[in-house]
Amino acid sequence: MTENMRSLRNFFLYKCLFALTFWNHISLSVENELFTSVSNDFPEDGSDKKIKSLPLLYTNSHQSKANFDWVVIQNTTENLSLSEITNDNVKKLVALLSNFRQGSRLQNLTLTNVSVDWNALIDIFQTVWSSSIEYFNITSVTQLSDIKSYDFDYSGTSMKALTVKKVLITDLYFSQDDLYKIFADMNIAALTIAESEMIHMLCPSSDSPFRYLNFLKNDLTDLLFQKCDKLIQLETLILQKNKFESLSKVSFMTSRMKLLKYLDMSNNLLSHDAADVQCQWAESLTELDLSSNQLTDAVFECLPVSIEKLDLQNNQITSVSKGMAELKSLKELNLASNRLADLPGCGGFTSLEFLNIEMNSILTPSADFFQSCPRVRELEAGHNPFKCSCELQDFIRLERQSGGKLFGWPAAYVCEYPEDLRGTQLKDFHLTELACNTTLLLATALLLTLVLVAVVAFLCIYLDVPWYVRMTWQWTQTKRRAWHNHPKEQETVLQFHAFISYSERDSLWVKNELIPNLEKGEGGVQLCQHERNFIPGKSIMENIINCIEKSYKSIFVLSPNFVQSEWCHYELYFAHHKFFSENSNSLILILLEPIPRYIIPARYHKLKALMAKRTYLEWPKERSKHALFWANLRAAISINLPISFEGNEEQSD
Q1: Long-range contact list for 434-438, CB < 8 A, 24+ apart?
Q2: Which family does it belong to (predicted)?
Q3: What are the residues facing 193 on neighbouring strands?
Q4: What are the backbone dihedrals phi and psi of residue 281, each rounded to the nearest 5 degrees, phi first?
Q5: Angstrom distance (rounded) from CA 587 to CA 551
């Protein structure tokens, strides 16, 4: 019977434990409105311990029942979260926490909305320091008053990390050392005091075990930890969102932190002047965050040489100083949101692997970046105001050759200038090789120029252009002199029916056949012949022009001899010029002998054109056809001159 009773009791205890585990998210309210609840928050240090929690039951009645319940709590609960702590219930909180002696399961404690005076807060801290708690988070602490010195007992603690957030001190008159000394001398690995308007922190009075310090969003200044040599184990220091101003003073602050690896100074008021004293950083520092400050190009003269990861995002940097010390260990550099106009070279960053330079002022990034930075595995250069021009073509070509090293390609790489290309992705922007290769463009232009010059020279030689230019000049000068000598003559008076142009080798036919047959009889034609009508004292050229000008028609006796005469060519040129300038039908061509086209010189292109387009009279070999020839010729030159033939004869004599 006794054995059966023992079995029933064990079964009942098992059921109770099962019920307690099942209701692990229930909160119970007991006397004095002390609330306890279960929290699933992980500790601030990132511990991934499995959370086991049970409801807490605390009561002054039924002492035996309470003792039983505390045995269950101490063996099953790892996380405890309490809120609404006041001076009225703080003693019961201390009594509650006193039950969690070292060796119990409770490791994580969170207190929220704590409104107590200084002595009560010290009691809570001292109790926690003597308990099994390792990670203590306290948020929204107000009404701290009567702050005074306290001899805190740090010995024999299980505490590893303390996080204090949003502390509001109502006591206006107290010694700051009494407050900060409590935290500075804590023998824990991690301390966080954030969002509390803290203006200072003391250097620990002895070698400190701090490995992690986080003073986020306070009012700390350059005076922090100056000449402090007690933080010998500190590895991580976060001073984000404070009021630091001097980068050199920050460097001296770290110089005695022998194990410091990570420093976050982002969102401060930091600046550095090249005239400042030389910076001196902790030799162990490998990661530095200086983003969102007021740093300029001079910052590169005040950087730790051992740095491996550097964040300079959102500053006022326009270029990477070439006189900077070499950062041979730097692997990751963030220069986003600055004022850089080009990609920095890697002269001072020989080990660089990752570079972020997005959101700067880069129009045309250098195409030789990967050549100067052979170890870079990823370049983030998007969201810059790219100017899509020839200079950008090399950078686009570089992307194709880089093997995917441009992060964010192609969406983040868009043309900003010129305006008509705004919004066009760089991958869709193309220009011809000729348009962008200056050497090729100059070579092509030079080649075309040479070809053009060669063609013009050939045509000039083939068509004897210089000769025509010279003839035009002669004709112009002759006309000018004639107008100057006889300014009152408004127009030339025709004196001859025709001017005869022929080769001296054909002069027998002209004198024996042409002239007699045209001038004979009462109504004979008045002809102008150079032998009898050229005026002595004038140049041959001037005489030719005058005779052509004073003749209604110009008769050209064509033969192989004609095309070989230079003077005949002159006469043909001036007559042809008159033909076009006066729009008159003044040319008469007589083909005395057939002329093979191959013997006509190239410069006689006018003659070729005339023979191809105009009708000419061919001298017949048959004597029976001579009468018809002369009749046709007379009809071609028939005109009434404005002066008498007698007057002409007298003038020609």
Answers
A1: 435/390, 436/390, 436/393
A2: Belongs to the Toll-like receptor family.
A3: 164
A4: -100, 165
A5: 11
User: Which residue in this structure is represented by tokens 């009560």?
Assistant: 120
For residue range 92-108, list pLDDT tens digits in order: 999 999 988 888 889 99
Q: Is 649 a domain residue?
A: no
Count of domains observed in the chain? 3
> Do 514 and 582 belong together in one domain?
yes
Look up residue 69 and give its two tokens: 């319940």
pLDDT at 358 over 70: yes
Say yes or no: 455 and 502 in one domain.
no
Q: Which whole number is the average pLDDT over 560-578?
A: 72
- Residue with the two structure tokens 């007021």: 294
- Is 457 found in the same domain as 567? no
User: By mean pLDDT, which of 16-20, 247-251, 383-387 is the weakest?
Assistant: 16-20
Domain that holds residue 73: 68-196
Q: Are residues 521 and 624 in the same domain?
A: yes
Among 63-67, 219-223, 387-391, which range has the highest average pLDDT? Answer: 219-223
* Most confident region among 258-262, 451-455, 497-501 by mean pLDDT: 258-262
Mean pLDDT (the chain) is: 79
- 569 plus 452 within the same structural domain: no
Element (H, E) at 399: helix 390-402
Question: Would you call 626 exposed, middle or buried from its count of C-beta atoms within 10 A (0-12, 13-18, 19+)?
Answer: middle
CA dist., res. 338 & res. 316, Å (int) = 5
**Average pLDDT, stretch 133-150?**
90
Work out the burial of residue 453: count CB atoms within 10 Å of its CB; fewer than 13 is exposed, 13-18 middle, 19 or more buried.
exposed
Residue 567 lies in a domain: yes
Question: For the chain, how many helices (H) and strands (E)?
Answer: 19, 22
Q: Of the spans 55-64, 81-90, 342-351, 533-542, which averages the highest pLDDT?
A: 81-90
Here the CATH number for the domain that contains residue 82 is 3.80.10.10
Point out the domain boundary residue: 196, 217, 250: 196
Same domain as 153, residue 83: yes
Could you tell me if 80 and 53 are in contact, meaning their C-beta atoms sit under 8 angstroms apart? yes
Please tell me the distance from the alpha carbon of residue 651 to that of residue 495, in angstroms, as a whole number. 9
Same domain, 460 and 562: no
Nearest to 281 by CA among 310, 309, 302: 302
Average pLDDT over residues 254-273: 95
- 73 and 184 both lie in a single domain: yes
Q: Is 602 within the bounds of a domain?
A: yes
- Beta-bridged to residue 289, according to DSSP, are 264, 311
Treating both helix axes as pointing N-terminal to C-terminal, what angle do 90-98 and 118-129 enclose, rounded to 10 degrees?
Answer: 10
Least trusted range by pLDDT, from 249-253, 259-263, 529-533:
529-533
Contact 383, 353 (CB under 8 A): no
pLDDT recorded at residue 48: 39
How far is Cα 12 from Cα 372, in angstroms, rounded to an integer?
Answer: 77
Instruction: Go through the chain and tell me how many residues it has.
Output: 653
Judge whether 610 and 586 are in contact, CB under 8 Å. no
Cα–Cα distance between 483 and 473 in angstroms, integer? Answer: 15
Residue 4 resides in a domain: no
